[in-house]
Amino acid sequence: MKRFILSLIAMTIVLTLSAQSIYDFKVKDDVEQEVSLSDYKGKVLLIVNTATRCGFTPQYKELEALYEKYSKDGFEILDFPCNQFGEQAPGTIQEIHSFCTANFDIQFPQFDKIEVNGANEHPLYTFLKAQKGFGGFDTNDQRGKFMDDMLRNKDANYDKKSDIKWNFTKFLVSRDGRVLKRYEPTDKMSDIEAAIQMEVNPVLSSIMARRSIRKYLDKPVEHEKLEVIVKCGINAPSGMNRQPWIVRVVEDQKLIVDVTEVFKQENPEQVARDKDFKNMFRNAPNLICVCTPANGGGELDAGLLGENMMLAAQSMGLGTCCLGGPVRFLLSNDKCKFFLDRLDIPADYKLNYILAIGYPDEQPDAKLRDVSKVKYIK
After folding, report:
1. Would residue 289 show up in a list of annotated catalytic residues for this protein?
2. What is the largest CA-CA distance in the chain?
């Protein structure tokens, strides 16, 4: 019997982790009606496991303040009471809901009580924990040190597991269903609000979500979308409005294949190392080639042009990668002259960089940024 139960748990975990996104899950609301999380597509979500008799219970007030401030911008809080931590969420969901409305006047949806760890954990939480594991408590914070000491006394290796550690752990989910970040109950609500602001603002969310994409679907970008992206690019600022750039958009798939053949002949070992190699432009189906004056100048303006185009592409569900290596290869190899000739670059201009662009076939995580390099002079 024990072996059967373990097998059942393992099967549940496998099926949960094979889910494509958070929208594949269903939950029960406070009147035990089944709700699909696909109903929340296009919303920024904060998913929280809560309790009504916890030292962190006053966070309900802060959560409601966030909800009132950002719900009009497409922000939702999904509240899942859980009684697994110190049995601090007793009673029925109806009793819990009455307590929360009476004491904190909460307006965001509460769902039926669930378990978030162990054999009976809800598949939603299996998925959430797999996406974002435990990142640790801030032990420089008094509450963080208290939680760390308490949990380490029970299990010296507690921090090596992705389990939910206590009430009011939070997961931030983007409008397109990506689990962005996990917050522990001791994390500052001001940090959570700053992240929510980034997500509900479409400009900021595009900036924060953009990554360099190096894997693309075998699907060319529609001409109409490329036109919009380039229009956003040429609307970038430039010194004295000189617009010192020349832009060439490559939609000819054969041209990309033909110049890649030259690259493969010249770099057989590099190509052999990449089992996914399709073309020399990170396998992108389309290219945006940006040129600047041959005698110098215009590089800063061209950079602003490129950033506009990459952010526009991001907002349209496309991926990009700014390439320098292929430019050096094209300019240094006479066999690539046919490619440059097709670009029809004026004699007084030079190829500066290429944007690979296409439908992404990966979702890389953000790499850490060094905030210590920023100083505010007041």
Report:
1. no
2. 79
DSSP code, position 73: G
What is the mean pLDDT of the segment spanning 181-193? 97
Residue 366: what pLDDT?
86
What integer is the mean pLDDT of 248-277? 96
Tokens representing residue 202 in the block: 């479409």
**What whole-number distance in Å separates Cα of residue 205 and Cα of residue 195?**
9
DSSP per position, 93-154: HHHHHHHHHHHH---S-BB-----SSTT--HHHHHHHHHS------TTSHHHHHHHHHHHHH
The pairing of strands 349-358 and 319-323 is antiparallel
Q: Residue 14: is its pLDDT beyond 60?
A: no
Structure tokens given for 157: 């290796």
Give the residue carrying structure tokens 């590089």.
299
**What DSSP string describes 338-375?**
HHHHHHT--TTEEEEEEEEEE-BS--PPPPPP-GGG--
> Is pLDDT at 117 greater than 70 in this prediction?
yes
- The residue annotated as part of the active site, out of 54, 82, 291, 336, is 54
Task: For helices 223-234 and 299-315, give the axis angle rounded to 10 degrees.
Answer: 140
pLDDT exceeds cutoff 70 at 4: no
Min mean pLDDT across 19-33, 221-235, 331-345 is at: 19-33
Nearest Cα residue to 166 out of 227, 82, 257: 82
Q: Give the tokens for residue 339.
A: 């490619």
Burial of 186 from C-beta contacts in 10 A (0-12 / 13-18 / 19+) = buried
Strands 179-183 and 170-173: antiparallel
Contact 306, 233 (CB under 8 A): yes
Percent of the chain with pLDDT over 70: 95
- And the tokens for 346? 């004026």
The H-or-E segment that residue 274 falls in is none
pLDDT(45) > 90 = yes
Q: Residue 42 has which token pair?
A: 């296009």
